[in-house]
TrEMBL record, chain A:
InterPro entries with a match to the protein in the record: AAA+_ATPase, ABC_Ni/Peptide_Import, ABC_transporter-like_ATP-bd, ABC_transporter-like_CS, Oligopep_ABC_C, P-loop_NTPase
UniProt-annotated location(s): Cell inner membrane
GO process annotations (BP): peptide transport; transmembrane transport
Molecular-function annotations in GO: ATP binding; ATP hydrolysis activity
Listed SUPFAM superfamilies: P-loop containing nucleoside triphosphate hydrolases (SSF52540)
Keyword field: ATP-binding, Cell membrane, Membrane, Nucleotide-binding, Transport
Record-linked PANTHER family: DIPEPTIDE TRANSPORT ATP-BINDING PROTEIN DPPD, OLIGOPEPTIDE TRANSPORT ATP-BINDING PROTEIN APPD
Name of this protein: Peptide ABC transporter ATP-binding protein
Domain ABC transporter: 4-255
Membrane topology: Peripheral membrane protein
GO cellular component, one term: plasma membrane
PROSITE patterns hit by this protein: ABC_TRANSPORTER_1 (PS00211), ABC_TRANSPORTER_2 (PS50893)
TrEMBL record, chain B:
Species annotation: Teichococcus aestuarii
Lineage: Bacteria, Pseudomonadati, Pseudomonadota, Alphaproteobacteria, Acetobacterales
Keywords per UniProt: ATP-binding, Nucleotide-binding, Transport
Residue span(s) of domain ABC transporter: 17-257
Superkingdom to which the source organism belongs: Bacteria
GO cellular component, one term: plasma membrane
Membership in a protein family: Belongs to the ABC transporter superfamily.
The protein's name in its UniProt record: Peptide ABC transporter substrate-binding protein
Basic and acidic residues bias: start-end ranges: 324-334
Pfam families cross-referenced by the UniProt entry: ABC_tran, oligo_HPY
Cross-referenced InterPro entries: AAA+_ATPase, ABC_transp_ATP-bind, ABC_transporter-like_ATP-bd, ABC_transporter-like_CS, Oligopep_ABC_C, P-loop_NTPase
PANTHER family for the chain: D,D-DIPEPTIDE TRANSPORT ATP-BINDING PROTEIN DDPF-RELATED, TRANSPORT ATP-BINDING PROTEIN
Key word Lyase present: no
UniProtKB/TrEMBL annotation, chain C:
Topology in membrane: Multi-pass membrane protein
Organism: Teichococcus aestuarii
Domain annotation ABC transmembrane type-1: ranges: 103-287
Similarity annotation: Belongs to the binding-protein-dependent transport system permease family.
Annotated InterPro entries: BP-dependent_transpt_permease (IPR050366), MetI-like (IPR000515), MetI-like_sf (IPR035906), OppC_N (IPR025966)
Matches recorded under CDD domains: TM_PBP2
Descriptive protein name: Peptide ABC transporter permease
Record-annotated membrane-spanning stretches: 38-59, 101-127, 147-172, 219-245, 265-287
Length: 325, 340, 302
């Protein structure tokens, strides 16, 4: 049994202009100790997927239209907020892009970590404090006992993200969801945080779902990659396959359009056009208007996510055609 | 390369924080840019990289006098523009422009695209007549937007399209020098490449000179001819891009490049183990370390680094760095192989 | 993924549908406003009062000051819609003409604030050098409770309609200026303002084209609440005998006169009281609606 198993999940939002589907019919699973990278640009639905799993979407306006989210055998979609709170923490924890707004500015960071633990475990204040120090040490905060009494504004961006990770890990979650954990950070700090996440996975064996728009972050961390576009999964494969033999034109475009640090490209191969707004998605394959391989048949129906080799799924009717050519 | 179009000489910008108010106390001084010497050659793209808070954005704005320098000079086309009176500055503004990072904050939401692009022309005396509108339409076409875009408002466009509008506004006066301040950083990756290509095409067509400020080292490598690296208000290394990326001299530059995620997963574990890591984070510009500003994080720091600030010195043709490790006078035997 | 280099132009051309329609963002805002229930209710309530004020000469037949001792203390209904007061004056006439005065005073105070509050706020927010001195004067004025300051000013100048407007202007302009200043300070740092500076725009142009139009939203919200305060304060002042001189029909005056007959003729004080309440309630609902729609920070929380 997979740790996390999502089947046919569709999440929609009520807006002034009617209901908009943010995530449509996505299915994937995540094993114990595995790192899954979810890649996508704005509007791809990657963050909504994470928030749906966490039960953190405000309902309304959000609504789970269909599908199931099973975590360690337990169905999460129908749970009440109170039941969900039991899952968050020891089950699934999450860290966000902006570590400043995710910490409460009026409480000391020690209190915030202890509060998280207290919600799930009955421990003496002393034990809580020890545990908090331990967590800060784990995430690489120097002289943790002293930092416990700092307020969030006294820490730098990188340290705040470390504190967020400490809070997320305080209850030994089995799954950590990291939503653009390094986007707001500088490269040297990004490298530190990614190293930390990898070390923590190796040490605790937790699964990590890392959500990012940066293919480099995926290349550094993920075991398996899922590429999303305009609310749907377009390709899913082991990390090596995604980088060596991507089949979906969008995945290839993503890999080609970023400049390389080592090899010089005379000109970037841009993906033409713009990301579709949720209300104005094209018929059939959503990438069709920007795709160099599109044929009339692409407009007819949304291509299904079909298997193409071991652990490799692609939603493109032109995927094999191109490979054969 | 030809001659320098923009030059900075001992350029500094110090902000005073705290203080102010009726009961003025002496506030702390933030040295955002602290004694920078820089030359940008006509027709080149100089990349400017560094972590947030290093002063790269402030430097860009100083060069086009969007903010006033505390000390030092800016030369444009050989002439000192630092003390230029407002009237003369205004005509100079035609020649230098800026493209901003945030495609949402850079356009006035209450103006139609046509008025946004036309505004610089109107400021410089053009009548908003049919000819002006024609020029706006041509400009929009040049940056890859339809003519109909002229009558629309910013909220109707996506991030990439807004950035095109911002570029059209910057180019409408046919400037010679453009500061691209994180101009592609906020865009989705699939759109980012379009804008990078557009900037390169425009440079070729119009003979533009760019200062390309960014924190993404890959993009900077792609677009730049030379690259300058900033750390805490100072330029620590400047060189042609091949030299910077393939043979970086300053330990900070090395760390920056090593920190960029590799574009391929192969061998990542080994890479992770071998990577030059810098510990900690950039100190605050309010409280600068003495000596070399990087010594608090530098794996090669020596005694001299803690007390003497290294000057920016040319060690190879066109390749300058501010680091004692390369100075024969200070270079210890142990780091011989590092400098080699 | 080969020949994609030439494609971006076409693709962007196709992106927004091709009909050239000049859709000002204000239209969308208006549409949202008229879908906002609170705003519409407020608009209707205040609309009734505004209509009474505007149509006063045509919807009243009696001079509001015509005495008719034979008809004093007539209860509402019958010949006298709202009844009569202790001098037999038609309460309907007096309340309607009072509405006119209230709306007129409210509008004048709002206009004074719109001009001087904006001016002071914009100058203080835009020119850092002026900020200190302007805001300290402002703070000094705001240190007094609003109504006490208004009472002080009218007591000094003497009771008259004009002086009430002046007093309320002095009381509220600092508050408006603060709000304008706050948004100007935020807008001054916007990148489109920086872009205008980089293009060589002067201060006047930047204020006129880039800052003030974008500072309008919080300003309009503030002014709609201010209208309510002004009407309420005017009633208070004339109730205290510091407003328009009796027998001028103002709601405050009517209520002050009716106070002595509260037990026998409660309508004299109740009717202008209810009218005042409807006005203030309407304006506040209107203001809440405007705030929800125009001020995005608060809209998110909604």
């Amino acid at each position: 049994m997979s740790l996390l198993d999502i089947r046919g999940l569709t999440t929609a939002f009520q807006t002034e202009r009617g209901e908009i589907t943010a995530v449509e019919d996505i299915s994937f699973s995540l094993e114990e100790g595995e790192i899954l990278g979810i890649v996508g640009e704005s509007g791809s639905g990657k963050s909504v997927t994470a928030l749906t799993v966490m039960g953190l979407l405000p309902r309304p306006p959000a609504r789970i239209v269909s599908g199931s989210v099973r975590f360690a055998g337990q169905e999460l979609t129908g749970l009440s907020e109170r039941q969900m709170q039991k899952v968050r923490g020891p089950g699934i924890a999450m860290i966000f892009q902006e570590p400043m707004t995710s910490l409460n500015p009026v409480f000391r960071i020690g209190e915030q970590i202890m509060e998280t633990i207290r919600a799930h475990e009955r421990l003496s204040t002393r034990a809580l404090r020890d545990r908090a120090v331990q967590m800060l040490e784990k995430v690489g905060i120097p002289s943790p006992a002293r930092r416990l009494d700092d307020y969030p504004h006294q820490l730098s961006g990188g340290q705040r993200q470390r504190v967020m990770i400490a809070m997320a890990l305080a209850c030994n979650p089995r799954l950590l969801i990291a939503d653009e954990p390094t986007t707001a950070l500088d490269v040297t700090i990004q490298a530190q945080i990614l190293d930390l996440l990898m070390d923590l996975r190796d040490e605790f064996g937790m699964a990590i779902m890392i959500i990012t728009h940066n293919m480099g972050v995926v290349a550094e961390t993920a075991d398996r990659v899922m590429v999303m576009y305009a609310g749907r999964v377009v390709e899913e494969a082991p990390v090596g396959t995604v980088f060596d033999a991507p089949l979906h034109p969008y995945t290839r475009g993503l890999l080609d359009c970023v400049p390389s640090l080592s090899a010089a490209k005379p000109r970037l191969v841009a993906i033409p056009g713009n990301l579709p707004e949720p209300a104005r998605r094209p018929s059939g394959c959503r990438f069709r208007p920007r795709c160099g391989l599109a044929v009339p048949a692409c407009a007819a129906a949304i291509p299904p996510l079909d298997p193409h080799g071991p652990g490799h799924r692609v939603a493109c009717i032109r995927a094999t055609a191109e490979v054969a050519a | 390369m030809t001659r320098p179009l923009v030059e900075a000489a001992a350029l500094s910008k110090h902000f005073t924080l705290g203080g102010g108010g009726l009961f003025r106390r002496p506030g702390e001084t933030l040295r955002a840019v602290d004694g920078v010497d820089l030359r940008i050659m006509e027709g080149e793209t100089l990349g400017l990289v560094g972590e947030s808070g290093c002063g790269k954005s402030t430097l860009g704005r100083l060069l086009i006098r969007l903010i006033e320098a505390s000390d030092g000079q800016v030369l444009f086309d050989g002439a000192d523009i630092t003390g230029l009176p407002p009237a003369k500055l205004r005509s100079l503004r035609r020649a230098m422009q800026i493209i901003f990072q945030d495609p949402y904050g850079a356009l006035n939401p209450r103006m139609a695209v046509e008025d946004i692009v036309m505004e610089p022309m109107v400021i410089h005396g053009a009548k908003p007549d049919a000819a002006a509108r024609q020029r706006v339409a041509a400009m929009l076409e040049l940056v890859g937007l339809p003519r109909q875009a002229a009558l629309r408002f910013p909220h109707e466009f996506s991030g990439g399209q807004r950035q095109r509008i911002g570029i059209a506004r910057a180019l409408v006066l046919r400037p010679r020098f453009i500061v691209c301040d994180e101009a592609v950083s906020a865009l989705d990756v699939s759109v980012q490449a379009q804008i990078v290509n557009l900037l390169q095409d425009l440079q070729r067509e119009m003979g533009l000179t760019y200062l390309f400020i960014a924190h993404d080292l890959s993009v900077v490598r792609h677009i730049s001819d030379r690259v300058a690296v900033m750390y805490l208000g100072r330029v620590v290394e400047i060189a042609p891009k091949a030299a910077i990326y393939d043979a970086p001299m300053h330990p900070y530059t090395r760390a920056l490049i090593a920190a960029v995620p590799a574009p391929h997963p192969a061998g990542r574990a080994a890479r992770r183990a071998a990577r030059l890591r810098v510990e900690g984070e950039m100190p605050s510009a309010l409280n600068l370390p003495p000596g070399c500003r990087f010594h608090t994080r530098c794996p090669h720091a020596m005694a001299v680094c803690r007390s003497v600030s290294p000057p920016l010195r040319e060690y190879a043709p066109g390749h300058s760095t501010a680091c004692h490790l390369h100075d024969p006078q200070h270079r210890p035997a142990a780091t011989e192989e590092f400098a080699a | 993924m080969s020949e994609t280099g030439a494609l971006p132009l076409e693709a962007t051309l196709a992106a927004p549908e091709a009909e050239p329609r000049r859709r000002h963002p204000a239209w969308a805002t208006l549409r949202r406003l008229f879908r906002h229930r609170l705003f519409v209710t407020g608009l209707v309530l205040f609309g009734i009062i505004a209509f009474m004020a505007a149509a006063a000469p045509w919807i009243t037949d009696a001079n509001p000051n015509r005495l008719s001792m034979r008809n004093k203390f007539q209860p509402p209904g019958g010949d006298w819609v709202f009844g009569t007061d202790n001098f037999g004056r038609s309460l309907w006439s007096r309340v309607v003409w009072g509405a006119q005065l209230s709306v007129m005073i409210g509008l004048s105070v709002v206009a004074l604030n719109a001009v001087f509050g904006t001016l002071i706020g914009a100058l203080a927010g835009y020119f850092r050098r002026l900020d200190n001195i302007l805001m300290r004067v402002n703070d000094a004025l705001m240190a007094f409770p609003a109504i006490l300051l208004a009472i002080g000013v009218t007591a000094m100048l003497g009771p008259s309609t004009f002086n009430v407007i002046l007093a309320l202007g002095i009381v509220y302009i600092p508050r408006t200026a603060r709000i304008v200043r706050a948004s100007v300070i935020v807008l001054r740092e916007m990148e489109y303002v920086q872009a205008a500076v980089a293009a060589g725009a002067g201060h006047w142009r930047i204020l006129r084209h880039h800052i003030l139009p974008n500072a309008m939203a919080p300003m309009i919200v503030q002014l709609s609440f201010l209208f309510a305060y002004a009407v309420l304060s005017e009633a208070t002042l004339s109730f205290l005998g510091l407003g328009a001189v009796p027998p001028t029909p103002t709601w405050g005056n009517i209520m002050a006169e009716g106070r002595d007959f509260m037990r026998d003729a409660p309508w004299i004080i109740a009717i202008p009281g209810v009218t005042l309440m409807i006005t203030v309630l309407g304006l506040n609902m209107l203001g809440d609606g405007l705030r929800d729609v125009l001020d995005p920070r608060l809209r998110i929380q909604q």
